Amino acid sequence: MKLTTNYLGLELKSPFVVGASPLGDDPDMAKRLEDCGASALVMHSLFEEQLTSESAALTALTESIEESYAEALSYFPESAEYALGPEDYLDHISRLKKRVSIPVIASLNGRTPGGWIGHAKLMEEAGADAIELNIYDVPTDQEESGAELEARVMEVISGVRGKVKIPFAVKLSPFYSSLPNLAKNIHLAGANGLVLFNRFYQPDLDIEDLNVEPKLFLSTSSELLLRLRWMAILHGKSPLSLALSGGVHKVHDAVKGVMAGADVLQIVSLILRHGPQSLETLIKDFTAWMQEHDYKDVAEMRGCLSHRNSPDPGAFERANYLRVLQLWKV
Length: 330
Ligand SMILES: Cc1cc2nc3c(=O)[nH]c(=O)nc-3n(C[C@H](O)[C@H](O)[C@H](O)COP(=O)(O)O)c2cc1C
Known about the structure:
Blueprint: E1 5-7, E2 10-12, E3 16-18, H1 27-35, E4 41-47, H2 48-62, H3 67-74, H4 86-99, E5 104-110, H5 119-125, E6 130-135, H6 146-163, E7 168-172, H7 179-188, E8 193-196, E9 204-206, E10 211-213, H8 224-234, E11 241-245, H9 251-260, E12 264-267, H10 269-274, H11 277-292, H12 298-301, H13 318-326
Parallel strand pairs: 3-12, 4-5, 5-6, 6-7, 7-8, 8-11, 11-12
Antiparallel strand pairs: 1-2, 9-10
Helix pairs in contact: 8-9, 9-11
Bound molecules: flavin mononucleotide.
Residues 19-22, 44-45, 107, 109, 134, 171, 199, 218-219, 223, 245-248, 267-269, 272 line the site of flavin mononucleotide.
């Protein structure tokens, strides 16, 4: 039984990767996750705001910083509140590389082209095997068109490509007008993979205190369906590696992710909720499922239910929407 998979050109022992989260903050935890079968580990993100706030502070000393920018900065955590500062982050890459033998993927999180992108090079020099570039943007400006926003995304991606030789994946949100076209352009801009998807941490409204409350919930399997559809649609359309992130909790979730076309499955909430042992159990169950269903390797299973390969491609499209709505009986 072969669980091996290729992700971003890295040969991994299985498709089970620990996704970006605080799980990589402690080298002992990283080792424990490796022992439980993790085939790679994505570190939590280093944010554009962390990298630009240092230079912004310098600018503020020499010239008057724009009022609105200063206000915007105040919404972000103080530098002491980030788990690791930019320098510590690089040291932490080396610490993890010494402690585990699985690939360590550093994560850079931002939205605008700029000097902070240079940090990708430092991550490479610190020993990262790959980078995950998380482009997390919430458009609020009605003057900026989708095309302009996507052009900015491409500028960030080609900026990173220009800095590093190691592979990198782009972690996206699902809210783009044409993901297949965006994926094609992301490949042309030099990225090696896609991670589907970022979860948006939706703020709730406090209707008594009239305030906005930031909320972070761990996922459930219900988040998988959105990923499955887009994974299936993107599978086989470009040479990009595909990682599924969001909603993998049970063996059937993992099987579906691979059948839709994922090269790897990134797991976070399951492990945060139930500990590293839950990853080991998931991998065991996945292996047993493959055996019971006579799959000799993951490659045989990958993408067998993608948009291209499934017996009913319309099920991923508008046709299914019509059918589902019309067949509902009261
Ligand atoms: C506590 C916590 C911290 C996270 N930190 C990051 C991060 O730093 N960078 C990032 O790209 N994603 C981060 N994520 C998102 C996860 O990598 C992942 O995309 C998301 O949790 C969906 O996967 P899951 O359903 O397995 O949890 C974080 C998630 C959680 C729960």
